[in-house]
Design brief:
This protein is elongated. It is about 65% helix and about 0% strand. The chain is mainly α and about 140 residues long. The protein has one domain. Helix 1 runs antiparallel to helix 4 and helix 3 runs antiparallel to helix 4.
Amino acid sequence: MTIFPNPNNNYLGSKISLYYLVVLACMFTFRGCVHYFAPDGGSGIIAGIPIETYPEGAVQTIINAFGNYGRYHLIEAVLAWLIIFRWRAMIPLFLLYVMVTQALGVVLVTMKPLPVIPPGQIVVYVLLPLSALAFFLSVKRI
């Protein structure tokens, strides 16, 4: 008995979508490691949030929130790598998930902007249309 489905690399969509997923998997892996393992979770050293100006409790909350963000990126990275190597038939579903999370990210930074503009905020505006394109190419039968 296993919880994992049988390998299915019968992917009929565009190779461009597969390569895009490889780029995303690398990005999720990097982001996850930084947010989870960096002492400040990347909040200061990468995002530029001036955490040294906040009270200690607020700093710990920010670092913990960034660590949780990293945890989810590491889960996304593992799923992306599994899909790339074992379950390519799931590429469209995963790209749809990525597209939805990026759209929600755009809404979030619009409704609740940070005091600084972190790299992830800029990247989400670039990746959202790319993810939409990759998704549509992944469902197109070639």
